[in-house]
């Protein structure tokens, strides 16, 4: 399906009955441990806390169940979207006309250190837990992930970064599932990664990764570095609900500084606000809608273009849609 067709299918939607049929067909094919429901509200599953429901939402409990979900959705021509910890997405107010899959089941949260210090992790493992377990095991090199409110799968998909490092700095291999349900292991060298980008995971679904720490130390030392990053983050980034940095940093520049210098801190549309703490965060002051956030993104881009002559590109994903269609 091309991006254009995808947007069209989301906008037009499928008749409700099609998803009911899909639900009835799939339910008996997956194990009882797999959660699958109709009309699951997604806003509370995201850090921005806006947006509507998924027609069908599933938390597969195994590789086999994920394969069934992909196969059946494919057979019915329905779109499948992966949701990580929801820390880098804006869910549209109308929701998502598709099957939303989350690896939230504990089966995907493994953390298995090996003799040589490398550690196999599941895509559903929260970065917060990865950091805690790595510190306990005295593994150095994962500290920068402290405070990124995502899971391993999302961090791989976005090549999440902070404090001058990014996810693929510590990745050796990624285990993924293609949309056809085939499980593969790719070495980092075989993947195309860049700033907030991993080509292979635009389509394929990350199942887990093999990570390599920089070195080993004692738990106290690792914890101290994480605490230092945590303090730095709390001093410079807002606490209110947000999707993290909303725009990519243009090469050699800082989106936060450009927005700040364009006089936009505190600018509001409804309850969406350009954070007075860090201008590259749009925060939800309580009851913002996705439409408020999108309108504010538009306003910020227009103003920064006018004042600075720079076109900012969103970093966060618009779930099930393309930014270019709404900006
Ligand atoms: N700045 C301002 N005004 C602001 C914000 C920032 O003048 O309102 C200036 C700062 O003073 C600094 C420069 O801009 O001189 C860069 O700011 P900062 O150190 O906060 O880093 P950033 O480039 O804005 C990046 C990542 C963050 C990550 C931090 C910390 C992007 C888009 N952002 O922010 O990642 O947490 O570094 O390492 O790459 C995210 O991806 O969601 C995210 C939050």
Summarize the topology.
Layout: H1 3-12, H2 16-26, E1 35-41, E2 53-59, H3 63-75, E3 80-83, E4 89-90, E5 96-102, E6 111-113, E7 119-122, H4 127-136, E8 139-140, H5 152-158, E9 161-162, E10 165-166, E11 171-177, E12 183-187, E13 193-194, E14 197-198, E15 205-211, E16 215-216, H6 219-236, E17 242-245, H7 255-261, E18 268-269, E19 272-274, E20 281-284, H8 290-308, E21 317-318
Parallel strand pairs: 2-5, 3-5, 4-21
Antiparallel strand pairs: 1-2, 6-7, 7-15, 8-16, 9-10, 11-12, 11-15, 13-14, 17-20, 18-19, 19-20
Helix pairs in contact: 4-6
The structure holds uridine-diphosphate-2(N-acetylglucosaminyl) butyric acid.
The site of uridine-diphosphate-2(N-acetylglucosaminyl) butyric acid (EPU) has 16 residues, from strand 17 and helix 7.
Describe, in short, the structure shown.
With 327 residues, this protein is of the alpha+beta class. Helices cover 29% and strands 24% of the residues. It has helices at residues 3-12, 16-26, 63-75, 127-136, 152-158, 219-236, 255-261, 290-308, and strands at residues 35-41, 53-59, 80-83, 89-90, 96-102, 111-113, 119-122, 139-140, 161-162, 165-166, 171-177, 183-187, 193-194, 197-198, 205-211, 215-216, 242-245, 268-269, 272-274, 281-284, 317-318.
CATH architecture assignment of the largest domain: 2-Layer Sandwich
Radius of gyration: 20 Å
Distance between the termini: 22 Å
Q: Average pLDDT value? A: 94
Q: What's the tally of helices?
A: 8
User: What fraction of residues sit in β-strands?
Assistant: 15-25%
What's the story with the biggest beta sheet?
Answer: 5 strands, antiparallel
Give the uncertain stretches in residue-range form.
Answer: 1-11
Question: Can you list the ligands bound to this structure?
Answer: uridine-diphosphate-2(N-acetylglucosaminyl) butyric acid
At the third CATH level, what is the topology name of the largest domain?
Uridine Diphospho-n-acetylenolpyruvylglucosamine Reductase, domain 3
What structural class do the secondary elements suggest?
alpha+beta
Strand order of the largest sheet: 6-7-15-11-12
Succession of helices and strands: HHEEHEEEEEHEHEEEEEEEEHEHEEEHE
Q: Helix share of residues?
A: 25-40%
Shape: globular
Number of domains: 3
Would you report the number of β strands?
21
CATH C-level class of the largest domain = Alpha Beta
């Amino acid at each position: 399906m091309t991006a254009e067709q995808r947007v069209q299918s989301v906008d037009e939607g499928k008749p409700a009955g099609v998803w009911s049929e899909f639900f009835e067909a799939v339910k008996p094919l997956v194990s009882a441990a797999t959660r699958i429901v109709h009309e699951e509200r997604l806003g509370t599953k995201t850090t921005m806390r806006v947006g509507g429901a998924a027609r069908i939402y599933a938390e597969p409990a195994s590789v086999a169940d994920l394969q069934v979900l992909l196969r059946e959705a494919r057979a019915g021509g329905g779109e499948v979207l992966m949701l990580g910890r929801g820390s880098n997405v804006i869910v549209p107010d109308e929701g998502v006309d598709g099957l939303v899959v989350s690896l939230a089941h504990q089966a995907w949260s493994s953390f298995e250190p090996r003799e040589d210090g490398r550690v196999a992790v599941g895509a559903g493992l929260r970065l917060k837990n990865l950091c805690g377990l790595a510190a306990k095991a005295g593994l150095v090199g994962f500290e920068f992930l402290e405070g990124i409110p995502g899971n391993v799968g999302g961090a791989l998909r976005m090549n999440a970064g902070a404090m001058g490092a990014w996810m693929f700095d510590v990745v050796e291999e990624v285990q993924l599932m293609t949309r056809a349900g085939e499980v593969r292991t790719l070495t980092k060298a075989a993947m195309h990664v860049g700033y907030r980008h991993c080509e292979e995971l635009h389509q394929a679904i990350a199942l887990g990764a093999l990570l390599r720490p920089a070195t080993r130390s004692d738990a106290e030392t690792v914890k101290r570095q994480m605490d230092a990053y945590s303090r730095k983050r709390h001093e410079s980034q807002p606490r209110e609900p947000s999707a993290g940095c909303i725009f990519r940093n243009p090469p050699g520049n800082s989106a936060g500084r450009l927005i700040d210098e364009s006089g936009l801190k505190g600018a509001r549309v409804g309850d969406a606000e350009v954070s007075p703490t860090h201008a590259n965060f749009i925060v939800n002051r309580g009851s913002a809608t996705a439409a408020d956030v999108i309108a504010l993104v538009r306003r910020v881009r227009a103003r920064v273009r006018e004042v600075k002559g720079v076109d900012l590109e969103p970093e966060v994903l618009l779930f099930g849609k393309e930014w270019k269609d709404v900006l």
